[in-house]
Design brief:
Length: about 130
Amino acid sequence: MSREAILCVDDEAIILMSLKQELRLSFGDRFTYETALSADDAKSIIEELSQDDVRVALIISDLLMPGTKGDEFLVEVKRQYPDIRAIVITGHADREAVERTMRETGAARVFHKPWRTEELLQAVSDCLSEQE
C-alpha cells in the first residue's frame, strides 16, 4: 500500500503552520503532511507526491487566495483525481458561496476562520474513514 498525505493550501503561512501542527498532533505519523501557499504550488506537490507513490487522501484548502481561487483549484483536482477528498476553510464566504463551493467541488465540509479545532479534526477523520 502506498503512503498517504494530507495537503493544506492557504496563502497565509501562519494558517498552514497551525493546520499542520493540529493534524500532526491528532494523526501522528499516519500521514505525510504537505503545505502549499498557492493552488499552483499545490498542483505541483500533488504531481510530485503521485510520482513518489504517495497518495493525497485529503486537501484542506482556503477559498480565497491570490491567483487560482480555492474553489477553482478543487474543481480541477476533482476532475483529475476524483478520489481526493476536500475540506474548505474560509474567512470571507457567505452562505450562498459556501453552498456553491460544496456543490461544485464536492467538498465534504466548509469551515469559517477561525475554525474550532475539534470540529475540523472530526471532519478530517470522517473524510479519511470514508475512503477506507
